[in-house]
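Let us walk through a complete example step by step. Step one is to write down the protein sequence. Step two is to encode the small molecule, magnesium ion, as a SMILES string so that its atoms and bonds are unambiguous. Step three, shown after the inputs, is the structure prediction itself.
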Amino acid sequence: MHRLDDIAAAIRRDTLDTLTAIGHEHRGHPGASLSIVEIVTALYFEVMRVDPAMPCDPDRDRFVLSKGHGCMALYAALARRGYFDPAHLATFRHVDSLLQGHPDMRKTPGVDMTSGSLGHGLSAAVGMALDARMRRSPSVTYVLVGDGELQEGLIWEGAMAAAKYGLDRLVAIVDCNGLQSGGRVADIMPLDPIDRRWQAFGWNTLEVDGHDLDALVVALRSRVDGRPTVILARTVKGKGDARMEGNNRWHQACPGPRAPSRTPDERGRRLASTRVAFGEAVVELWREGRPLAVVTSDTTASMGLDGFAALAPGLHVEVGIAEQNLITVAAGLAAQGRTVIAATYAAFASLRTLEQIRTFVAYPNHRVIIAAGLGGLSSGIEGVAHLGLEDIGILRTVPGLVIMNPADAVATSTMVRSAIEHGGPVYLRLGRDDSPVLFEDGYEFTIGRGRVLSEHGWDVALITSGPIATEVVDALDVLASEGVRGVAIELPTLKPVDRDLIVGARRRARHLFTVEEHSSIGGVGSAVADVLSETVPGIVHRIAVGDRFLESGSPAELRVKYGLTAEAIAARILRVTTGVRS
Ligand SMILES: Cc1ncc(C[n+]2csc(CCOP(=O)(O)OP(=O)(O)O)c2C)c(N)n1
Ligand SMILES: [Mg+2]
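Step three: the predicted structure of the complex.
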């Protein structure tokens, strides 16, 4: 096994070097990548029948990295195995890279299944194994899941199906590193006795040291007739780097040097995080005696709620990585008269928990505030699975749900108070990292009311929402230097919208634009067009990310690529105002 040891060492080195080089802005998940190095080495260099020269061979073995955030180790293995030039590693998570923030079968040679939203890989692998059986192919399907990931209910739906169909050419490996995003699995949502759970679901169960290549190879080859096999691989998160071993600070942190803080930004604005402002506002409101409960889905710290959890542990419920459970538990708490804050990310809140929001929160009109981080382009580095770019469109269709989209941290504080005082369900879209602060303390907010942010004149009206408002305000300056005077209007509430403000803008302005970090369908542009179609019809020029799937890139890179910088917004507007066809 000497050869495999050397390969694993090289993959570990490539993983660390790349994550160190890409820069803090692009992060990556070093801990989760390092814990699976031996597993991917054993698979790609000993066990799996694959040939990079025939990447589409129907009889090849398949691999699904369900814990997609560990993908740097997979990419390093694929590069070394010859699927693509290792020079691509340095482009990881940058815009236009082959190597997305999470595995992407459309972009990366050798990747068999897209992942990143936890919990899906096992069911996908069941489908692949069923297909192999239908084709009478000898192909074996391997799927690697995280231990925290096992908290998703869908994993167990897939486990039942695999046992029912006796998928003996399906092998699941659980990366049992004992940690997840917010701490120890045993604290967040215990899974033990994990072996007995899999056995009860009808699986052949093995346990190995997940860093012992010999043991892994033997386990990966030992299948039994008529039953799927699961290998519980005991691993160390961050294995091989003394700073990181067992230290969850490295769940998602770049080991490279941090760029100096950009406060204030190049235009002199203070920077602050809406997530932090949100968490602080929740603590303040709880101190005032509001009957709050907070429910998190392995999002306590990442949504700024660790302060609340420390101060009021009895009012904090951690359901683990289980978003459907998150919203439905929140609905149950709210049904008893509490005001409940449920925290997840925008993509998961709108895509995965839509039914729970619609039928169990909005229909009974419960006081549940769905706090959704990583909205818009703020999650760009993570790629498709995490990009929350359809959330407003999807959730605008839910009757009675108020949709708030604060433009900065100051507005967030005020809007959290308003959401808690509101007597029904609210969706609150938040960002990720710091963004420029636009407003002064004392910011006033009323649900359903918008505001004029900046007014140079009425040649053009720009209606916007969320942190992109700063680019819109700056675009007005660029336009002014070209002799076009515009007004920037902000809609902090996207449901209900400020109809009077929209109609007034349509009446006064020669041209009307909407600007948003959202799909061009369903968001600000659609909300404005809905109002105008019933009042003063006219053209709404939509500046948005389009009707498409985006890809990995820092928020700044994606704003450039999709024309959402102040300069690009102004240029697009000038093409219309000067009559140039765009
Ligand atoms: C559906 C979903 N919810 C939340 C996340 C955010 N997230 C990314 S990694 C992670 C923790 C995963 O823990 P585990 O499965 O144990 O993997 P490890 O990091 O230990 O490798 C979370 C919550 C996600 N990617 N998908
Ligand atoms: Mg884990």
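Step four is interpretation. The two ends are 61 Å apart (CA to CA).
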